[in-house]
Amino acid sequence: MSYKLLSYQSSSGARAGILIGDRVFDAERLSGIASYATALGVLDDWVAADERFAQLAAGESPPRGGEALSSIKLLAPILYPGEIFAAGANYQDHIDEMKKDSEFKAQNSKKIGGRPWFFSKSSRGAVIGHEAIRPLPPYSNKVDWEIELAVVIGLQCSRVSASNALNFVAGYTIANDLSARDFVVRDGIATDSPFRFDWISHKGFDGACPLGPWIVPARDIAAPQALGLKLWVDEVEMQNSNTKHMIYSIAEQIEELSARVTLHPGDLILTGTPSGVGISRNIYLKPKQTVRLWIEKIGELRHGFA
Predict the structure, then answer these.
(1) pTM strictly above 0.90
(2) Superfamily classification of domain 84-305
């Protein structure tokens, strides 16, 4: 049996939890280590923590007690990631569908010897958890969905090679890179101006990064570049693809980012979305709708709009 790392709401506030089977155990009490009270505390000691919890989950006598998963209020697995980096234009079919309707005229930079491309999302405001219900941003009428495999960094890394990059990954979770398509650019700004694009309004608004439901350790996902992923809006399937279609692999993305900035435990990399987003259909999210996201070997993230 394996385990999953999560965050949950307790009577005393947010706590890190370990899911083994269908029971959730408080990470600090299970380990006896005070710093494991939060998911970031667990990630800051990832090598030792991962080994400890894996052994507990695989033991002949699994831990007793805990609480039923069905009775737990899940929060985002990392409440406040250090950094959220998001890959743009990383699936060819998404590049193709965006050419017609978006201000972004992206291309497959790998074909011309280029490099992966990233933007950032806000952390404290944007991240929300499993089954969260939040209002859509009041200024936008065109909020779109984008399912993405999210990589959780578990060890500090700088200038690592792609061949070694996955050794710095703690695990994987699911993200929805919500995007306000009617606030991509600022009106009245020249098309060749770098100040034309409005990244905060477009990608960084409150609730723009639903995340969860938990982190699956990297040890349990041997082939992260071969995971099915699907997204439904009100049970209508909108996206259906596989991480094998990424243009730049997870390892290549870590190599690129770590060449510029030091990555730390708890940082996230959203690895891009495939085709099937709303802008290609002129369909956008509305109040009272529910979004369901599934990635193979991870599970299902659900959230909705007030």
Answers:
(1) yes
(2) Fumarylacetoacetase-like, C-terminal domain (3.90.850.10)
